[in-house]
C-alpha cells in the first residue's frame, strides 16, 4: 500500500530526489505522509519551510487521506508568474 | 482555450489568436518579464520548475472561474519553465471579452490567482549567489 | 515610446518590444478588435478616419500623463485607420511597469482616455447600410 | 487673414470637402469660424452634431481666438479605439 510523493524546488534539492515512495498502510493524512518523508531525509526534517499539499494534482488540506497509488505533492510556497 | 507549461519561448501572437473570435471587442494580454534587478540584487538568470500536470489543471480551473465571473469569451495561459534570461517572458495571460472593462478586471484577477496557486517555483541566480524565491503558500481545503 | 497612426496592420510584437526594458517586470497590452456585431447589426467592415497629426500628439500627451500618474516605464500606442475587417486590430496600447498592478491600472486608464480624446472617427458598414458611430464629444478648455 | 479649417467624418461628407479656407480678419473665436463654414455649406448649417474645436492640433474652447495661418479642426464626437 504505497503512495508516490513528489518533491519540488528547495525540498527536492534538500532531499536530493524529486520522488519517493511511502508506505501508507490503510491510508494516512497528507501531513503524516510528509512527516514520514521528513524522517527518510534528515535535511527535510530540519527544514522550516511551510508546505501545502496536493493529492492527484489537486490542492487538499493537511488531513486529506492518502491511499494506495495516490500521487502526493509537497508544495512549498509558489512563485510562478514572473 | 489554450493552456501550456513549456520550456520553449512563449508565443504572444499565438495566445492572442487563441482568444480572438468575431464577438471579441477587447483582448487584454499580460506578460510577466524577467527583471534585471530584484531585492536590490543584479539578476543573472532564473530557473523555473513546475509540477506541470497540476499547473495545467490549475490554469484550466482558474480560467473557467474567470470566464464565469467576468463573462469572458476566451482565455489563454502560457507559463515558461527552465532557464530564463533577463527580458524573457515567463508568463502570458490573454483574455478576450466583448467589452474592455471586464477584460482588464479579469486579466488582473487571473494573474493574481495564478501567482497564488500555480505549482511553479523559481530559483534566482544573482551576482554572488542563488536562492529559491518563496512567494505564496497556496490556501487549501 | 512608440506612437503611430497607420493604415498598415498593427504589429503587437513591435509594441511589446518597444516597451520592454530590463527593469520591466510587467507588460499589459490592450487590443481593440473589430467585432462582428454591434447594436444588434451584423458588421461588414469599418472605416477609420483620423486627424493623424493631432491624434499622434494626443497619444504622446496621454502617455506622458499615464507615466507620471502610474510610474510606468514605457508606453506604446498604435491606431489603425482605413478599412478594417471583422477581427482586425484597430488599437494597440502597451504599457510596461516594474509591477503588475500599476500596469493594469494604467492600461485601462489610457484606453479610456484615448477613446474620449483621440480625434479618430469610424463609419460602420453593416448589412443594409452604413453609419458614422458618434462616441464621445471631447471635453475642451 | 485666412485660417484653414479641417472637416472630418460626417462633417466632411456633408460639406463634400475635407478642408476650406475662412477669412478671419483680425481674429475670430473658433465657434464663429465654424459658423462661417456652416454658412458656406448649407448641409452643415442644418447639421445638429455637437462639435469640439482644435487649433493647431490642440483642443481649445469655443471662444479660443483663431488668427491668420491657424489650422482649425472641427471635431465631431470621436470613436477611436475599436
Topology (elements, then pairings):
The complex is a heterotetramer, with two copies of chain A (82 residues) and two copies of chain B (141 residues).
Chain A: E1 2-7, H1 9-15, E2 19-23, E3 28-29, H2 30-40, H3 42-45, E4 52-55, E5 58-60, E6 65-66, E7 71-75
Parallel strand pairs in A: 1-7
Antiparallel strand pairs in A: 1-2, 3-6, 4-5, 4-7
Chain B: E1 2-6, H1 12-19, E2 26-33, E3 37-38, E4 41-50, H2 52-70, E5 74-80, E6 82-85, E7 89-97, H3 100-117, E8 120-126, E9 129-133
Parallel strand pairs in B: 1-5
Antiparallel strand pairs in B: 2-7, 3-4, 4-6, 4-8, 5-7, 8-9
Helix pairs in contact in B: 2-3
State the end-to-end CA separation of chain B: 27 Å
Number of domains of chain A: 1
* Superfamily (CATH H level) name of chain A: Beta-grasp domain
Alpha carbon gyration radius of chain B:
15 Å
Record field, number of beta strands of chain A: 7
- Which two chains have the most extensive interface, and how many residues on each? A-B, 27 and 36 residues
Number of helices of chain A: 3
Shape of chain A: globular
Radius of gyration of chain A: 12 Å
Short description:
Chain A has 82 residues and is of the alpha+beta class.
Structure notes:
The complex is a heterotetramer, with 2 copies of chain A (82 residues) and 2 copies of chain B (141 residues). Chain A is of the alpha+beta class. Chain A has a single domain, classed as Ubiquitin-like (UB roll) (Roll), CATH 3.10.20.30. Chain A contains 3 helices and 7 strands. In chain A, strands 2-1-7-4-5 form a 5-stranded mixed β-sheet. Chain A has a two-stranded antiparallel sheet with strand order 3-6. Chain A is globular. Chain A starts with a strand and ends in a 7-residue tail after the last strand. The model of chain A has no long low-confidence stretch (mean pLDDT 96). In chain B, helix 2 packs antiparallel against helix 3. Chain B is globular and about 50 Å long. With 141 residues, chain B is an alpha+beta fold. Chain B starts with a strand and ends in an 8-residue tail after the last strand. Chain B has 3 helices and 9 strands. The model of chain B has no long low-confidence stretch (mean pLDDT 96). In chain B, 46% of the residues are buried. In chain B, strands 3, 4, 6, 8 and 9 form a 5-stranded antiparallel β-sheet that branches. Classes of the chains: A alpha+beta (82), B alpha+beta (141). Chains in contact: A-B, B-C, C-D. Chains B and C meet through helix 1, strand 2 and helix 3 of B and helix 1, strand 2 and helix 3 of C. Strand 2 of chain B pairs antiparallel with strand 2 of chain C.
